[in-house]
Amino acid sequence: MSTADPAPLEPLHWRHLAPIWGHPYRGYQRLHARYGPTVAIDRPGRKPIVFTKDEDFATACLVEHHDAFTRPLNIVTGIFRSLVGDAIVSSEGAQWQGRRQRGSRRIRGATLEDDQVELLRRGLGELRDEVAANARGEVVDLLPAIERFTLTQSIRLVCGREIERGPELERLHRAIQTIMGGTQQIADIRRQMFLYSVLPKARKILDAPLRRAIRPSFALYAAYEPDPEVRELLIATFENPSTALSWTLSLLGEHPEHLERVRDEVARVDLIGDSSVTIADIDGLAYTGAVIREALRLRPPIAYLSRRATRDVAIGDVLIERGTHVLVIPYCLHMDPERWPAPERFDPTRFLRADGSVSTRGPAGGRLWSFGFGPRGCPGTRLALQLATAALAVLARDFRWTSPAERARPLPTGRYPWNEKSPVWERLSRSA
Ligand code: HEM
Question: Which residues have C-beta atoms less than 6 Å from ligand 1?
């Protein structure tokens, strides 16, 4: 990027937002194909919205010039704050720093440690037993078992509490599902950015019944965990890892050759039965880890990273004016054929280095954006990867599954900040 005479991008007329309303991922891609990797669209009465699939531009906004941006309170953080309370994701400045440090301590710098392996093994055993009870060669829904796994692990690792399978877990699970579902509907309303530029009060009027509907679930959730900072980590460790696992399992169901390669790798590691297993053994499952990363590349659980400029800032030769909203859309970055050759193909080997270890970059240098990047990037990255790798290792070791052809798995729309989970209806059997 040159730095000569930075000038604002010429914004397109707001009618170009129309393709984004129905299926944002397809809409953004169409606009990028037509107008280039970084596009600005006018918003009446407000500064434009800029969205980008340019890695250098995105990196400059999120890392080099991160201090010129805040995370706006309108979509993800606004909804989150009203549900969870004040926490890391919705704060800025010194308050954010303090919360982020406390959060990192709570999740131990986001790396599982060997003294937590026992807790993990218990959760993996419960996951295996629940799945085994359904493995009769028929098509079954694996999503509830995945969600119960990430929820119990989250309660044990983040809240430091024990919970058994049973009514208490079920109530909490249902409450979180209701909160997340209601939140997505609220996000759907807020997504109609143009409408709300014209009718700012309409948002509140339309949101109100949805907010009322989720209030009892939220009360239950808040009573379970009174500390908002812990509540945030509890949801984060439950929700996104289960989305990632849902897509991983369904993509593997469609690509049995990669499931077989995972099976070959995990045959030598018994995470449940072998009490001498360490976290290093989980980190050492390179192919399994590469499968998780490839699923995260194709189906990022968070649809967009959203920022608002707090001052004028030059990103190369583009001037981003104060108040401009910048959206970085991991899916679009991951679909760049120059960074990710044949980007739509499920190919975990992209993440394997020549020495067999696993990388976070593709062979053409593309970066995995699913966890964000820079100071506001996800603090739970390693924890999430370790949980997902361990769960996949246990399932692949004991079971085989294939996706029935009649079950369509549409691309997530990107309409919500939290992307849709995959339906995980698989023909499931025990391994021979
Ligand atoms: C597959 C799982 C996960 C994915 C894909 C994911 C993704 C993300 C993304 C994209 C962001 C926003 C980054 C940005 O705006 O620049 C984020 C932020 C965050 N994530 Fe995660 N996450 C995952 C798991 C977790 C876990 C397990 C935890 C907690 C232990 C966690 C806690 C957080 C928190 C607290 C933030 C806000 C950070 C801040 O504002 O400084 N996430 N995550």
Answer: 62, 71, 88-89, 100, 103, 107, 110, 232-233, 236-237, 240-241, 244, 301-302, 305, 370-372, 376-380, 383-384
- Return d(Cα 366, Cα 342) in angstroms, integer: 13
Q: Does any domain span residue 242?
A: yes
State the burial class of residue 256 (Cβ atoms within 10 Å of its Cβ: 0-12, 13-18, 19+).
middle
In ligand 1, the atom with minimum distance to the C-alpha of 302 is 10
Q: Is 186 a member of any domain? A: yes
Q: Whole-structure pTM over 0.85, yes or no?
A: yes
Cα of 279 to ligand 1 centre, how many Å? 21
Residue at 28 is within a domain: no
The domain of 98 spans 71-302+335-430
Q: How many domains does the chain have?
A: 1
Q: Count CB atoms within 10 A of the CB of residue 166.
A: 8
Per residue in 127-168, pLDDT (tens digit) is 999 999 999 999 999 999 999 999 999 999 888 889 988 999
